[in-house]
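Notes on consecutive records. When two proteins share a document, each keeps its own sequence and its own token line. Never mix them. Below: protein one.
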Amino acid sequence: MGSTSAENNGSNGVGRRDLIKRSAALGLIAVPTMSFLSACASGGGNGSSSDDNTKGTTSKSNPFGVKKGSTLDVVVFKGGYGDDYAKAWEANFKTKIGVSSTHTGTQEITGKLQPRFNAGNPPDIVDDSGAQQIKIDVLYKNGQLLDLSPVLDAPAIDDPTKKVRDLLIPGTLDPGVQEGKVVALNYIYTVWGLWYSGKLFKEKGWTPPKTWDEFIAICQKAKAAGIGGLAHQGKYPYYINVAIMDLIAKKGGIDAVKAIDNLDPKAFVGSAAAQAGIEAIYEVVEKGLLMPGTNGLTHTESQTRWNQYKAAFITCGSWLENEQLKLTPTDFDMKFLPMPLLADSKMPFEAIRAGSGEPFIIPAKAKNLPGAKEFMRHMLSKEWSTLFAKEANSLTILKDGVDSSVTLRPGTQSTVDASKAAGANTFRYLYPDWYSEMDTSIQNASNELMAKRIQPKEWLKRCQAAVDKQAKDPASKKNVHS
């Protein structure tokens, strides 16, 4: 699974419009376990933990004073993007900078890293993603994350006359912001929505739906043919929230997105868009149009059954193709589809949720802070961005960051096409990155709804209660989706 995912220093969905335009013009548009960390690092993380063994001499080409011969401890979530890209980075780093790495690729981020954070012995740089992600807001509140401003304000590898941040696609830093500080670098350009098999649709004579009524009609045809309509990764309700929240956004426009992110007292209860969105999803449940058993499956189990043509649609982000690479039939023809429209929606069909995902962090108590900062600076070079695209079949947040020689796979290419079609019509929720407890509560409500244990009215009530609870935290006033 990729991360979900989300960044705000005051930017909004408008900031991400340039993100799409710039990438599209170049043809290059490329969860949840709540953890409480008891041990606190020195507030905010200022890099004081780096000792003399990792300090070298600073210069224009070595702004952080990386010490040749030092070692970097790298931990990478080995999910949909694998970890071969990180190994390629590490080999390049050793050749160019003279810093070797210890590499860990794992899906057990919390299991392996929480004890290390608690003991004050974290890695130097971490891809903190996946179902066992340690939540960014929890790490931040415990003072365990480095403020990444020094990296973002450093000279860019490709153009030292510019800062690193100046070469990034607008809006992509927003998900990693906590109380005005960038503490996580969401590195991968991601889109979210529905997916289907081009082969199956061609065989059945189905046209990809643009309206919700057309979507329901195909789900009904699929059911009649002994195929599930919609699959979702039931054990991780983050995924069905892709559909729910996309419907709400497209129905109510960017104001509906902001209402949730900004903890509006009518974000859910009293919101016509939220009511319409959740009632639409419940229609799939009520009419028996879910793939049988999907509520009890993990993400890979549901996705694999979808690859076996046991469902017409599945919800996911653009890491799906990579995650299912070994299990997808060669002629499956994976395709991305924007969420179909409810009646009287404020956004067009082409509108998509798009932005940055896969958060990389530097722990405040990292042993080799100079090396970690320089490693992240290199991540935001065209050479390393291209290495990533070659190994992981995806795009990064670096503008024009992938060499034109890189060929993307069909599913990922379909997200490029969708991004071009979307143009300025993009949006992104920030609440999952800002408020993990609230996000978990909303996911739990969705899980209950999909299992038919609650109905839309109760879902709205529970989600609003989660919003209202979060709004009582004074710190939340520092996060504004404007």
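Protein two starts on the next line and is unrelated to protein one.
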Amino acid sequence: MRGRTVLVAGARVSGLATVPPLQDLGAHVLVTDSDAGAVAKAEALGVRGILQDDLLANPASFDDIALVVTSPGLRVDSPVLAAAAGRGIPIWGDIELSWRIDRAGLYGPPTQWLVVTGTNGKTTTTSMVASILESAGIESAACGNIGLPVLDALRRDPHPGALAVELSSFQLFWAPSVRPEAGVVLNIAEDHLDWHGGMDGYVRAKAGALTGRVAVVGLDDARAASLASDSPAERVVGFRLGEPSVGELGVVGSDLVDRAFAEHTSLISVDDVHPAGPAGVMDALAAAAVTRAIGIAPDTVADGLRSYQVGPHRNAVVRTVAGVTFVDDSKATNPHAARSSLLAYDRIVWIAGGLLKGAAVDELVVEVAPRLAAALVMGRDGTQIAEAVARHAPDVPVVTFSTGDDADVTRVAEDADVVMQAVVREAARRAEPGDTVLLAPAAASLDMFVDYGHRGRSFADAASALTDSDVVDGGEQS
């Protein structure tokens, strides 16, 4: 790349992380974005910046570009990428660039990549993998979709010997060369169908995690399990909540057991896994599988799982008021993720809504209807959830909240926080002692909030402002 022009499409976290390595390679870096502030941040790194509209207005701008490095969220048909593809310019994602730089040894010997993907549980599993690597004394980092760009992890000193890499379907789509030492597909449910053009495209993208030496699949998920037969990996391993067969990890009695990398080895008690419940156990089995794949000892796997701490906004109790528990699972950004939380509690005042991204909620509502005391919905696609509850649980009260202009992405913190305060007050009014007020949106957050973390903090702040009388008086009224 020395002396050649590389266009970085997208000047946010992942895009800006590509700039220093491209400079180290001697490339001439040009960064484009639709936001002038983002372009200015790129220029502060000592590279040229150009607004997307200005780039597209001058087709000759593409004449000297040898490569486009795209942010993962940009679709194939986005204007800049379509223009580049029309001229035959190669397009890589930031993960593809990271992989090639790592294989080339730019910052040190090639690193072992342990890749985690799936519709739900990616962040928890990746964090568990990182905890196990730390217990093993391996210089490592959790990176990728979890927050830290892979390129930033590769540039660390000392150089990492292994990486726990969370990858989204977008990142995998733009990274066809990645061949991890071990990769896992946890599960596959409807999500990002609008981006991938349907379920088939989404599944194909996820299957990119299974192209390395060891492929691991969740056997209790039909779609994930179906990928095992087509994986080109040297070895395919499965995990399940039930008793494992040879070549699998699973649960025997009260223990997580490895029958894939040992004849029959107990790893850890179910009671020692956090977060508790089936979803947490499945994530732990997946983390154990990919780390056992690189030879980490059973006792070390157990130590890493015990020391793992659950991250925020993942089924976290934020407060109990007058016998009502308020739980933040803002990370449940699709129906499949929300299901795990909804099935964990007996009687729920459900707070839901946001961007469904093409996913359907009818099956979820049918399954959880007996647990619902009320449903409070908000956001752009909140009415779809409200209508599903009305169809399948007509006796469940539904209250719909509006931002005032749900047709547009607001991202106005003050407006979103005001709506959340009203939602939580209404939830408290409808709850009774022993109930759980559960924020499990089943949808993405970007129609109202900066991100799912902002949504979770807004919920927690609103719950913290409640008094006992908000619940007690409300319960009497309802």
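For the record: Residues 305 and 325 are 27 Å apart (CA to CA).
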